[in-house]
Amino acid sequence: MTIDPIHQFEIQRYVELLKLSGVSVSFTNSAAFMVGIVAVIFFFLTYATRGRTLVPGRMQSVAEMSYEFIAKMVRDSAGTEGMVFFPLVFSLFLFVFVANVVGLVPYTFTITAHIVVTAALALLVIGTVIVYGFYKHGTHFLHLFVPSGVPAFLLPFVVLIEVVSFLSRPISLSLRLFANMLAGHIALKVFAFFVVGLGSVGALGWLGATLPFFMIVALTALELLVAVLQAYVFAVLTSIYLNDAVHPGH
Amino acid sequence: MNKTWKLAAAAALWGTAVLAVPATAGSLDPSSVSARPAPMVVAQAGAAAPAAHAPGAPEAGHGPEGGESHGGFPPFKPANYASQLIWLIVSFGALYFLMSRVTLPRIGRILEERHDRIAKDLEEARLRQAESEAAHVAYEKALTEARGKANAIAGEARNRLTAETDANRKALEASLNTKLADAESRIAATKTSALSHVRGIAVDTTNAIVTTLVGAGAPQQDVEAAVDAALAAKSN
Question: What residues of chain B lie within 8 A of the CB of A114, using their CB?
Answer without folding.
Answer: 74-75, 84
